[in-house]
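Same chain as my last thread, 144 residues:
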Amino acid sequence: MQTDWTDQVGRWLRPSRVAYAHCDIPCGIYDPHAAEIAAQTVEKMVAVIADLGADDGSVAWRNSFSRYVTVKEEHAEILKREVLVIWGDYFKPPHVEKFPQLHEMVWNLVKLAGANKQNVDAASAADLRAKTKEFADLFWESKK
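reply #2:
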């Protein structure tokens, strides 16, 4: 049985905040594949939403629509996180010297992912997939 003083010590030692992070140990394990899969998922969800057709008023239609939109938005957010982790943790000043378009590329890609969260647009989703591939290609080129 704990006493009052051990409860108090436990409260003092308990962290006040929980931190979540990509491995901030210099492990060197970075891969844009998750971002590419996320972009493909966004594009697929946009196509599935288009195939769903007009709202027929049924619960089934609304359930499907809301699930597809949720998955689309979750994967756009996954893409943003993956790209930002690689950009912030992997790329260093020598990379920026070699690839001066890097910062603008990342900024535009993250903005495009946000736009895909806000809308259901096949052209924008295809552009997101293409721009994510460009980012992945630049990443792999930097590893040479």
